[in-house]
Amino acid sequence: MISSIELFSGAGGLALGLHQAGFEHQALLEWDKDSCDTILANILLGFGGIEKWKVSQTDVRFADYRSYGSSIQVVSGGPPCQPFSMGGKHKAHADSRDMFPEAVRAVRELHPQAFIFENVKGLIRKSFSSYFNYILLQLCHPEIVVNEDMDWTEHLSILEKYHTSGSGSGLEYNVVFRLLNAADYGVPQHRHRVVIVGFRNDIQVSWSFPEPAYSNEALKYSKYITGSYWEEHQIAQKECPSVAKQERERIIRLFEKKTSTKRWQTVRDAIKGLPDPQSQSASEYLNHEFRSGARPYAGHSGSTLDEPSKTIKAGAHGVPGGENMLVLDDGSLRYYTVRESARMQTFPDKFFFCGSWTESMRQIGNAVPVKLANIIGESVAHSLKAERTWHQKKNSRL
């Protein structure tokens, strides 16, 4: 098992995916009571394998990591995204909710072998480029600490000089990042997120992000060339939006370039087997209650059944309806149920969400897709275990 601590755990999407990858969480730290209640409820309900999770409702700024000693191998988490979100106020370092400094502090004090942090696409927008570089350099050199009277740009300058000097010593990390679309990893949702992974520089690891195994080309091929998608769902084949010969040839060429990929998963794939939320059998599923009032408005038209869902969003001022609606086969609209949204985020059906529809959707919208977390976690765990095996073999020869 990989011993870990997670910051900003929310409702547990990242934690659950890493748990499935073999991570043993020594602590989950989260300030939001409703999110903590969700995780605690699942522990009490006997959700598989998480009975040992230790959830602390706390502000990470007051977290004391000394009690964990040197046992923590991985630190993970999703620092609050509002300072960088496309839908937020875009304040970055000037936003009091920017918790990246606390992520750096956790790394500095725990000395983990690796860390995994996730955030929104807006983190790498051009206007934030200097601050994003600052975040990365802090994670590379967590012991180069900012003074209280120092502006972040002054600290950035110090870090740049230190980083380029080539004379580093002490605690240092090799850090990489990539913008990922969760749909490319089998999640039935377009969700673009920046994932940052670092390995301590004394760890003998050669690592890269897992390559995407799913593609839009494969989905188009299954729908408009072979028709296998429609056969799978036992519905009449729908025509390609462009039926011109050159369009068909283009799809075939694109698919043949990525013959090893599976097709993107769609909304129809995700909700398969769930009853109509207005039927009597809907009560057999947790959090599968109908919510009325769905309507389209400018820029928000809902998700279609035969494509990955639009991004499930939490919203700074309540849940925006468009992203969390679906368009049915007859053209009508309705809101996703909490269970359907959880499926878009690849939470298991037995995972229960506490609170109202709006509160549950907020938790789900803020979560990391479980499947994406699992894929990255398995890759990191494999590298750490391989490094440990290498050291054991080396020591046995001495």
Mean pLDDT: 88
| Helix/strand order, N-terminal first | EHEHEEHEHHEEEHHHEHEEEHHH
Q: Roughly how much helix do the residues carry, as a percent range?
A: 25-40%
Q: Beta fraction of the residues?
A: 5-15%
Low-pLDDT stretches are: 84-95
CATH architecture descriptor of the largest domain: 3-Layer(aba) Sandwich
- Please report the total strand number as a whole number: 12
Biggest sheet strand line-up: 3-2-1-4-5-7-6
* Number of helical regions: 12
What name does the CATH topology of the largest domain carry? Answer: Rossmann fold
What structural keywords apply?
single chain; alpha/beta; 2 domains; 3-stranded mixed sheet; 398 residues
